[in-house]
Amino acid sequence: MTFAIHGLPVARGIAIGRAVIMAGRVDVAHYFIEASQVEEEIARLRSARDAVADEIRRLQQTIVAMGPKEAPHELTALLDVHLMLLQDQDLIDGVRHWITERLYNAEWALTTQLEALSRQFDEMEDEYLRERKADLEQVAERVLRYMKGVASPVAAPPRRASQGRQQDLLLEGTVDVPLVLIAHDLSPADMLQFKQSVFAGFVTDVGGRNSHTAIVARSMDIPAVVGSRSASHLVRQDDWVIIDGDAGVVIVDPSPIILAEYGFKQRQAELERGRLSRLRHTPAVTLDGQKIELLANIEQPEDAAGALAAGAVGVGLFRSEFMFMGRQGHLPDEEEQYLAYRRAVDGMQGLPVTIRTIDVGADKPLDDTRRDAAHLNPALGLRAIRWSLAEPAMFLTQLRAILRAAAYGKVNMLIPMLAHVSEIRQTLSLIDYARSELDGRGVAHGPVDIGAMIEIPAAALTLKTFLKYFDFLSIGTNDLTQYTLAIDRADESVAHLYDPCHPAVLRLVAQTIAEGAAQGKPVSVCGEMAGDTALTRLLLGLGLRSFSMHPAQILAVKQEVLRSDAARLAPWAQRVLEAEEPSQLLD
Ligand code: PEP
Ligand code: MG
C-alpha cells in the first residue's frame, strides 16, 4: 500500500529505487564485501557467536557458584534463553542470506536480520514470545559488541561501474535497479564513505537541513531527505521508494501512476541539468557588468575535479576535517596532510584553494570513540579553532602542511569559529611559528592569505577587529544562523525555526559584506545560503560578489547571476533587510 513520509528536503532531485535499510539500533560498520570474502565473513560472525556463547556459559557458572540467594534461578534461565537464541536457525539462516546474497558485512547482516525478526516478534499474539524480542536484541548486541573490537573499518561500498558480478548479486539478477539507503542516522564521515557509491538517494530519521551529514549529501548531488523521524522503521528492506529531494517527501510502495509521474519529473530535471551544463564556460557576470566569483566547497582533494567540471573559479572552502574523521585516534601526520592539500592544489590547476583548518566537534565528531556525549552543548563547546588551540601540536602539524602546499599554487588559509581577539592573536602567532619551524628545517613553503570565518554573532559584531587582522572574510551562514537563533542545526525537532532569512541573521550578513567592501577586503559566503538559488538575488543586492558552494549548485546559481542586475537589486535588498518577515518578499 502506498504511503508517504515527510522529512526535510536536503539535496534536490528525484530518486526511485529499492530500499536498503541500515538499522540504527547499534553503532556498527556497514559496508559491502567482495564475493570472494563471503566465507571469511561468515566465519568471522561464527567465531564472534561462539565467543559470546562461551562468555554466557562462563557467566552461568559464576552465577551458579554464587548460590541461589545472590543469583536467582531466573537469571540462569534467562542466560539459557540467550544461549538458545544464539543458535536460533532463523537468525543464522537470515544472517547468512544477507551476507551471501547481498554481500553485506557481517555486522550489517546481523542488524538487518535482527530488524526483520523484531518485526515478526512485534506481530506475535503471545505476550511471552513477544517479550523475547528484547532478549534477541540483547544477544545480538553482545555479538556486535564483541565484533566491534575486531571488526574491519568501515569501507565504502564499491562504485557502480566496477560492480560486475557483485552488482548482479546485489540486485538479484535485475541489473540497473537503483538502490536507496534508509538509515536512522548517518554521521558526516559515514556519508562521505558513501560518496561514489551505488546509492541513488538517502533518507535518515534524524538531522536538520544544515547538519553536516545533510551538507555532505548535498555535495554528492543525489536526492536526500533527513529528519523523516521514522523512515527506517516504516520502510522495509527492498520496498520500492521514491525520494523527492525537492519536497522532502519519501513515497513508499508507489502505485504505477505515481511512479510514472515521478519518472516524468526525473526526466525533466535531467533535461534541465543538460541545459545548465552549457553555461559551464560562460563567465559569471551580471546584466550590469558585475563580475561574480563562483567558488566550490569541497570535502576531499578528489572533489577538485568535480569543482573544475562545474566551472568553479577556485575552491572557497576545503573542509579539511573530513581527512581527520573516523581514524580512531590516528590523525594524519604532516606528510599525509601536505600530500592531500597538494593534490587539491594540483587538482585545481592554478586556481586558488582556500583550506579551512580543522573544524571538528558538535555534529562532526572525530570518530565514535571520541563522541563527546559528556558535554550537554557540544556545539558551544570545544569545536573548530577552540579545539585546534587546545591541541597546539596537532594544529602546528596542520599549519605546516598547508604552508608547504602553498609553495605549489595559490592557497588561502581560513580559520573557523573565531570570536575573541585573543584567539585571533594566538592563531596568527602559531601560523608564524609554523613558518619558522619550516624555515628551521629548510623546507619550502609559500605565502598564504589568511581569512576568518564569520560564523559566530560576536565576530559579526566586532568586524573592525577581524578586518584589522585578516586578509579576507568568509561568512559561514550555517553556523551564523545556528548561533544567532539558538537553533541546533542538526536537530530536526527545531528545524522549522532554523531560518537563514531571519532579519537578525540577514542584518549580520549584510553588515559583514558592507564593512568588508568599505575596507577593500574580500568577503564571501560559504554557508549553504550561497548555493541556494532562491537567495542569489538577495545576496547580490546586498553587495556580495563571491559565493562558495557545492559544485552541483554552481551552474544554477550562475544562471541566476546572468539574469540579475545587481545595481537594481540593491534598493530591493535593503527593503528585504528591513522587513519583519524577509522571506515573504523573496518570491
Ligand atoms: C558554515 O557554518 O556556514 C560553514 C560553511 O561551515 P560548516 O557548515 O562546515 O560549519
Ligand atoms: Mg561553520
From TrEMBL:
Catalytic residue positions: 212 (tele-phosphohistidine intermediate), 526 (proton donor)
GO BP annotations listed: phosphoenolpyruvate-dependent sugar phosphotransferase system
Occurrences of domain PEP-utilising enzyme mobile (ranges): 179-248
SUPFAM superfamilies linked to this entry: Enzyme I of the PEP:sugar phosphotransferase system HPr-binding (sub)domain, Phosphoenolpyruvate/pyruvate domain, Phosphohistidine domain
Chief location category: cytoplasm
Gene3D superfamilies listed in its UniProt record: Phosphoenolpyruvate-binding domains, Phosphohistidine domain, PtsI, HPr-binding domain
Location of the PEP-utilising enzyme C-terminal domain: 276-564
GO molecular function per UniProt: kinase activity; metal ion binding; phosphoenolpyruvate-protein phosphotransferase activity
Metal-binding keyword on record: yes
NCBIfam families (UniProt xref): PTS_I_fam (TIGR01417)
Protein's name in the database: Phosphoenolpyruvate-protein phosphotransferase
Species assigned in the record: Ramlibacter rhizophilus
Taxonomic lineage of the native organism: Bacteria, Pseudomonadati, Pseudomonadota, Betaproteobacteria, Burkholderiales
